[in-house]
Amino acid sequence: MRSIEELIEVKRDGGTHTPEELQRLVTAFVSGEMPDYQMAAWLMAAFIRGLDSAETAALTEAMARSGRMVDLSGVPGVKVDKHSTGGVGDTTTLVLAPLVASCGVPVAKMSGRGLGFTGGTLDKLEAIPGFRVQLEPEAFLAQVRDIGIAVIAQSADVDPADKKMYALRDVTATVPSMPLIVGSIISKKVAGGADAIVLDVKVGSGAFMKTEAEARALGAELSRVGELLGRRIECILTDMDQPLGRAVGNALEVREAIETLRGEGPEDLTELCLVLGAKMLVLGERAQDTVAARALLEASIRDGRAIEKFKAWVAAQGGDARVADDPSLLAVGAQTREVVADREGWVEGFDAEGVGRAAMTLGAGRARTDDAVDPGAGLLLAVKTGERVSRGDLLGTLYTSDAALLDEAERRLCSAIRIGDAPAEPPALFLEV
């Protein structure tokens, strides 16, 4: 067996690892035998030289098996998870989880926190007073069995390799490596016990994948590796050239999720949740096809089962379920500012990342993993691409607890909204289904 140093040399020189060598690397790193500086060197070598398909699959499996594997076999039915590659205003989990669960497909999901301009599901859930994202494994499984839904923080002993490797990737400029992205995403889903996974790969200025070609390549590799590891995969490419919905920020997005579950949400967020949810119901063997699945989802929103499942979920995890009937219980920043157009014309597009960074400036995001997040900070957009505006029309409203942050956030938001002289077509929400 080669030494750790020799394994680094293999990848540095463009060589190929065996599955046993990748298992050795992962095991040594998690145990502490391989120090951070050696893993950082290997990550950079892998970033520059790449991993082939067999290496990516072997690395992913080794990461998944680096800690405890969640056993969901005691929960009846096919367990379907959903993963988004991240975006701005991406509130889908808060809508999808109760909506799909209300139609009879169990949702047992481990989620993460936001970093940079992209939001995190756990931060949004913690904007609900009392909501607990930490559950013991037995309580997690019992909740899924009892009410069909639980969304929690990833346990420290589940896929510890990914936690340690991602922390290093974040500070060594090796995050945007396709094999490492695939390993991070799929290893967590395999370790988390999912039988099937719906992948929402975001494309555009507010996504990690800026071009359609990059997103297609990532989607294909995620699907291939997931299937090699025995999971059924559906992949959808969706637009992130403008924020999804109109809310960006934790409490604000929870409010928007509640509106959507009541049938009163933004058109794009609603449509995306119906399409993703239909895929989940088919994979979960609750419907024969997406047409029948969509009908089940729409009926659940209409008759109130979706919002009732949301209430049961929030209450089960210690949250104040009254927010579903009175969203004003979700505290938003007391310091506000309306941002208005300085000219007339048409909204011809967004820098979606710029919108996310405006919300981050207000306190809604974090630059480092240990930064605090203001749950009430964020912004509400008043316009979408293709809409006409006059001088003085509202573009968006800023929310924060610190008035000193408003000027910079306003500047960022204005820079992120492009107003032109000619009508513009809104981008298609779906690039490929």
Question: Can you tag this structure with a few keywords?
Answer:
433 residues, alpha/beta, Transferase, Pyrimidine Nucleoside Phosphorylase, Chain A, domain 3, Pyrimidine Nucleoside Phosphorylase, Chain A, domain 2, Aldehyde Oxidoreductase, domain 3, 3 domains, four-stranded antiparallel sheet, 15% strand
Tell me what you see in this structure.
- The protein has helices spanning 4-12, 19-31, 36-49, 53-64, 92-101, 121-125, 137-147, 160-171, 178-191, 212-228, 250-261, 267-283, 290-303, 305-316, 352-362, 406-416; strands at 80-84, 107-111, 149-153, 196-203, 232-239, 247-248, 335-340, 345-350, 378-381, 388-389, 394-400, 417-420, 430-432.
- By secondary structure, the chain is α/β, with parallel strands linked by helices.
- The strands form 4 sheets. Strands 1-4-5-13 form a 4-stranded mixed sheet, with helices on both faces.
- Helix 4 (53-64) crosses helix 10, helix 5 packs across helix 12 (267-283) and helix 12 (267-283) packs across helix 13 (290-303).
- The longest helix is centred in the middle third of the chain and has 17 residues, at 212-228.
- It is globular.
- It starts with a helix and ends with a strand.
- The relative contact order is 0.14.
